[in-house]
Structure formats: structure tokens, C-alpha cells
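Hey all, quick one. A colleague (J.T.) asked me to put the pyridoxal-5'-phosphate job into the tracker so the inputs and the C-alpha cells live in one place instead of scattered across chat threads. No bug as far as I know, just bookkeeping. Sequence used:
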Amino acid sequence: MTTQLEDLFVQTRSENRAALIAYIPAGFPSQEGCKKIIAALAKAGVDAVEIGFPYSDPVMDGPTIQEASGISLANGTGAAEVFSALKSAHDVGLPALVMTYWNPIEAYGVDNFAQEMARNGGSGVITPDLTIEESEGWKSATDGAGINTVYVVALSTNDDRLARVTARCSGFVYAASLMGVTGARTTMSSGAEDLVSRIRTCSTLPVAVGLGVSTRAQAKEVAGYADGVIVGSAFIKVILEAKTETDAIAAVDVLARELVKGVREAR
Amino acid sequence: MSSSETLGHFGPFGGRFVPEALIGALDELEAAHNSALKDPVFQKELAHLHTTYTGRPSILTEVPRFAQHAGGARILLKREDLNHTGSHKINNVLGQALLTKRMGKKRIIAETGAGQHGVASATAAALFGLECVVYMGEEDTRRQSLNVARMKLLGAQVVPVTAGSRTLKDAINEAMRDWVTNVETTHYLLGTVAGPHPFPTMVRDFHKIIGEEARAQTLELVGRLPDAVLACIGGGSNAIGIFHAFIPDKNVRLIGFEAGGDGVETGRHAATISGGTIGVLHGTRSYVLQDSNGQTVESHSISAGLDYPGVGPEHAYLNDIGRAEYRPITDAQAMEAFALLCKTEGIIPAIETAHALAGAMIVGKELGPESVLLINLSGRGDKDVQTAADYFEIPL
Ligand SMILES: Cc1ncc(COP(=O)(O)O)c(C=O)c1O
């Protein structure tokens, strides 16, 4: 059986376009607000959503996602809230993933986490700090639950390792566009396109590019060569800047529609 | 198969939990360390620095007046406090600084809690002409302000970290973010036996000289091995350094003393093995202070250098196989031992180290006057004068 995420990439490939994937931490800006934003993303034409599991020590995140994670944790977000946000995405028809540092999965129980993902309609999990060397237990848990495992590869990943990491991926391969933490950048790094073409030589999976994409022009640029465009900090920034939750939803809608256009005008 | 697939584990502990962006740098570091271990030129250079710069071997001091408060056991202090820069930290720093040169990198970053590792890193950077940035929790820049000034005098940039608990854990987070961004030019000079492989193994290798010297010195002084070897535990580098040579000596007890803060039962402590559970923090699997969602719980200790919610994976392993024991010491117990060593022996220890001294006062009474205890006196207390003056209400 295929996941909703896998079906999505079959569809977008047939439409000759990239998918737009949005990231938002569960419980941000509030438990209900997060779900409303997910619904707004779906309505604006975003193709899939990554639900972030907020973590106390987000070493791969820049100030924007750090702040959002802090707010989410202060809102009492734990595994139950993450799965609830995931289910809400599934309910509005969006293919949904969870993106999380490894320790919350280990604390929940590796098998239980994978099962609970599937039970709430999740397509897969992105694990940016789980190395393939440590992934044996996760592989059997996710195989059992029938969900995708997305690993992140970097500009510095050599070809030999790229082949081994992508072999562990399913759903898509997450290509980090730059060396650094999450956060909006004014220009896209030139290395991303090269990384995507290196991935293509060892994997037939869809490749989605994340880190630093924030504008329609950047989305268009990336959508020219990648199968997916991932946007996180840019959404969080407009939510943080909004005065009310209603304003935040409106701002997310505006940004999402711009990015959707960018993705669709690329090819 | 690269060695990272086979190495770096201590039983179920250790390993690598890091973004892919760092794998290349960790492999490069592991390769540099492995080749340096076999390179007589490197070893000679490091040995030369030990004798002409650090002041090794550090001496062994017997402390009979202090020992009267520890059941009359014979107590020997391994004087790492007399090293250049005032603690054991310099052993690891000089080793890694030489590796930095070997890898052709020009910039080092470091985290620091008590400031001792930061000072040692700034010192090595000055010695080798490297750029140095030290991340330090804002709370720690306050309680260890003397060391902040030392680092600045040595030419390092000190970045106060305002996230989270503003202590060592948050300084490591910020250093990791810097490293992910600047990994091509920068070496992360991690200051303890934690973090992703190869750090726990490599940092231990640079500190094991402490135990090798102390074992020979103890044999020479008392004609036999000690009954117990004692050390304080932050991340665990000074402890693994003095323990390691004794691991094959099955009759020698190895006892680590964690920061019990207000008491483990209060929840306000940094006793990771005594009061934590197994998890992943800062790239390694070990004991961690965490809640049911895997969120790190803030640690508490009067000692900045022990105020860390994680611990090196080799200690987790030594604990689980029963080769070493780990016990908590409260702030109050540590400060009592601190004052006692000052008044009975004329040695002002670091507050970190005072946890091991407090441990000796307990273990000495358990083992009795026939016993010999070897303690790693990991650092001197100059940096703690302000904290101690506040604690004992000495007007400044
Ligand atoms: C004097 C001294 N002892 C001990 C420690 C704790 O570190 P570790 O457990 O790695 O030896 C520190 C850390 O700052 C220190 O300065």
C-alpha cells in the first residue's frame, strides 16, 4: 500500500510540477490556532504539511523556529498534541508528516510512535538527527506501521554516503539547501541544485529541498529542479508578526498563495 | 564500511545522533585522531607541550589533616589544579588544538560552563594562532565572571547565550548551531566526554594520562593500588581521565560524584545517572534529565561546571555493567568539603571538585582508616571565590 505522500508525488509528477510542503510546529501559535492554520494551508493550495514536534534543544533550528518551539512547549505540547495536529491535517485531506528530533520518539517508544503515526493518518516522519547507523529499530518500526521514513541529506554528504542514506528514505529525500540552521535567507544557495542532481544519480525517489526558502521567486527557482519545495520559517515569521490569530491565518493564506504560484510557474 | 558504523558505542550508549551536515566533519576528526594516535611526531609534540607548557606530570599530594574528617583513610589528591590554566581541561584542549592544526582548520569554537574549558580553549588558540569563539550561558557568565575576563584577555570572543536555562546545555546548543554553519573552516573543541562519536572516545584518550600517572604515583607512594578512585562528574572528562587506567584493576572501586543540587528528591539537581533516564541529548545516547515527552529538564547546581542534564556515554555504560558507581552530592555537602580543604590543607579547590572531596568524606568513613583513596583534584577554586564568598557571607 502506498502512503498519501507517495500518491501526492505521483500526481505532481504527472502534472509536471513540484509539490509545496509547509512546516508548522504543533501547538503553535496555540493548539487550535495550529489546526486552523493547517486548514488555511490546505485551502490555499499547499500540497502537504510537516507537523513539528517542539523540542527543548533544537540545535538545528535558527531563532525563528526556536521561538515558535518555545511558544509551543509553553502551550503544553507533547506527543498527544502532535498526533492531534497530524490528524487535523489528515482530516482536511493534506498528506501529513511529523518532523522531530530523535529523543521525543525514543521517549515515546519507537514502535508505539510509528503505530500512532499511522493511526492518525500520518504518511511519515522526518528525522533530521537520526543517522542511518542508529536507525535499525526505527526501520523495523516504520516498516511495521507502513509509514515513510525521510532522512535529511546535506551539501557536505559525499556520494557514497548519499547512496546509503537515500536507500533508507521512502516518500522523498529531504535535501538541505545550505550548511546551517533553519531560517529565511535572502538568496538561495547555489549548491542545492547540484545536491539534487547528485541525489538523482543514486535514487529514484522524489527530492524535496528545504532550508531558507521564503519567497515566491525562491519557490519558483527551487521548483524548477526539485520535486518538492519546503517552507517553514517564512510561515512562522508571519504568524509571529501577526497581532491576532485571525491576522495570522490571513497572513499565512497570502504567503501560501504566493508560494503556490511560485511552484506552479516554474516549469 | 566506515568505522562510524562500528565504533562509538559503549554497550547501548554513545553513537551519533547529528544532522548529516556534521557527518563529514566527525569522520574527518575521527580519522585525524586515529592517525595522530599512531603518529610519533604528533605524540612527541603533545608530550612536549605536557612537560613544557602544562606542567605535567601533575603531582600527588597526601592530605592527612583533611583525611581526619574522612574516617582517617589515606587520601591522595591528583593535582590537576596545578596545570597551566588551573584544571584538567587543558589536557584535552591541547590534544584537540593539535588536531585542529592537523586538519588545516583555523577557527575553534567551544562551549563552557565554569569557564575552565573556555579559558583552556582560549589559551590554546592564543598559543597556536587560532581564532576562538566561546559560547557560555548568560547565567554562567555571571557566576564565573573572572573566567570571562580571562578568556577576553587571551583574545577569545565570548558569546553569552540567553536561550533556555542560560547554562552549559544552552551553550552547547549554540556551539552546535555555529558548527553546522561553519563546519568547513571550524573545529568544535568539545570540552567533555559527551557529544557524538568520536568525542567521548577522543576526549577520554587525551585525559587518560591523568590515571596513568596517578596509578604509577600511587604505587610508588603507598606500594599498592588505591581502594577507590574518586572524581566529580559534569560531562565526565576528569572522571574518565583518572578512572581509565584503573578499569582493569577489578579491586579498585571507581566512584563518580554527581551534582545533587538541593537534593535529588527535590528535582533541583544535575545528578544525571542517579536521577535521570536513558535518552539522546547532544548527539549521544546516555542518561539524561528529561520528562515523559523527551524534553530536557533543566539541571541545577551551585557548580557551573557540573550543571548539565547529560553525562558521557562511557559513564552510563560503566554504571550499567557495575564497574563504576555514581552518587549525588548536594550543594551543601560540596561547600562544606570546599571549606574544609581550604582550612585543613591550604588548597582552594574548584566547587566542581569539591563534590569529589565531599564524596571522600563519606567513602573514607565507609572504608575506614586502612583504606587509600585517590581523588582527582580536577581544578582550583580561584574562579569560585565570588560564589564561595557569597555562600559563606564573606563581605567583599
Ligand atoms: C575543575 C572542573 N572539574 C570538573 C568539571 C566538570 O567537567 P568533567 O565532568 O568533564 O570533568 C569542570 C567543568 O567545567 C571543571 O572546571
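Adding what we noticed when we looked at it: DSSP finds twelve helices and nine strands in chain A. The pocket of pyridoxal-5'-phosphate is lined by residues B 87, 113-114, 116-117, 192, 232-239, 305-306, 350, 352-353, 378-379 (CB under 6 Å).
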